[in-house]
């Protein structure tokens, strides 16, 4: 084997249906919510000894053909700004267009529990109720890349749960919903993806190992030791992040702390991370460590049909996009 690429096709919303063309007797009105089949290409690899032989081009061409055969109207791929070869291949040779720049916000999992204010109450929603909540919070008319199989995703064995945080105390008599809330779901990628940090200096490795030893010997000091990230480790991915109300950011931080505390029970999990849009208000509320975060991701999209896309999709970035089916969750 000298080359590899992976592909899958999903049905997702596109943030609204096609609009009817106005006539002399009718006004332009939006049609019912439109779902579209979107392919995701990922994991393109070519052996170093067989590069510059057209293998990558042949793999992408065959993957796109496979996706077209299964009805995909668009294809997406994800890479990083530093991967010039990948960007040149997809945007130059194959005509993909950059359309999203999500940020991966991560933090390590410590041995100690993170605090959750006593004024915040966290509880878990069963999958059917979680699906109903997301359907109300993120209607397909206003949400891009909302998977049509969202209920199945929330009930999947790798979704560890959907959690809601609200402020403690009785609700006001005239309130049908809390004035502030936050919600997110946790995906366990430790069984499908392994990461590893390479190239660290020996002094850094030794320093982090010493902190772990100190933390084990004197846990009362609550040293924020970092797990051994120089060996293969897994991560928990947060998706469906939503918040509302004046206390929403604080409640979302409490949910992130809760997800961290859940991750402590899994020795294979060393990082908790979330993909968010840079202009998403939730981005400011998600705890992160700079060394465990990345703002180099680039998502590109291509219309696989020969006809022009009358809707003009890809559209400008939409804030109300809480369920981003990134390659990290698609695999």
UniProtKB/TrEMBL annotation:
Superkingdom of source: Eukaryota
N-acetyltransferase domain span: 1-115
Entry's Gene Ontology BP terms: auxin-activated signaling pathway
InterPro entries given in the database record: Acyl_CoA_acyltransferase, GNAT_dom, Plant_NAT
The species this protein was found in: Zea mays (Maize)
GO MF: acyltransferase activity, transferring groups other than amino-acyl groups
Pfam families: Acetyltransf_1
Protein name per UniProt: N-acetyltransferase domain-containing protein
SUPFAM superfamilies: Acyl-CoA N-acyltransferases (Nat) (SSF55729)
